[in-house]
Design brief:
α1 runs antiparallel to α2, α2 crosses α5 and α4 crosses α5. The two termini are 22 Å apart. Helix content is 71%, strand content 0%. The protein has one domain: Ferritin (Up-down Bundle), CATH 1.20.1260. With 177 residues, it is an all-alpha fold. The chain is elongated. The protein has 5 helices and no strands.
Amino acid sequence: MPPATAFAEKLNEQIANEFAAHQQYVACAVYYDAEALPQLARFFYRQALEERGHAMMMVQFLLDTGAEVTTPGVDAPSSRFASIAEPIALALDQEQRVSTQINALAATAREAGDYSSEQFMQWFIKEQVEEVATMGGLLRVAERAGENAAAIEEYLAREHSGGEGGDPTAPQAAGSA
């Protein structure tokens, strides 16, 4: 059964938002790479891949439910930053905005009585709690460290080494099978 029309339209918009987040995180990673901050670059490159994955999960859901998928274009991301903390603050703002968007998607599904779509959104709600907490913590570390990039790099090496592995409860992404 296809998702409610209003939900499918908003999910297509969210796919664009997720691809825009992917691009923004690539821009942040490139900034850190150019500043010779490999831990920050690695962290943001991983975040970029995660956001792309979220978009592809949404694409797969629409495909699985017989809904139309639109492939969006995105605006150019911010790529010039005045401080080490600025991209992290931008990322936190972005994650908070995405949380609002995800909650609105779940509400749209619920209002339409589209319980399959509402259930699909539950994983993303959980994911956004984690994303906001991660970026908020990283921003607090960066603000305490000031321009002491080594302290931020050490924090990331210790706390976010990247060996977490995939979430077995995550929806399948288009193209991953």
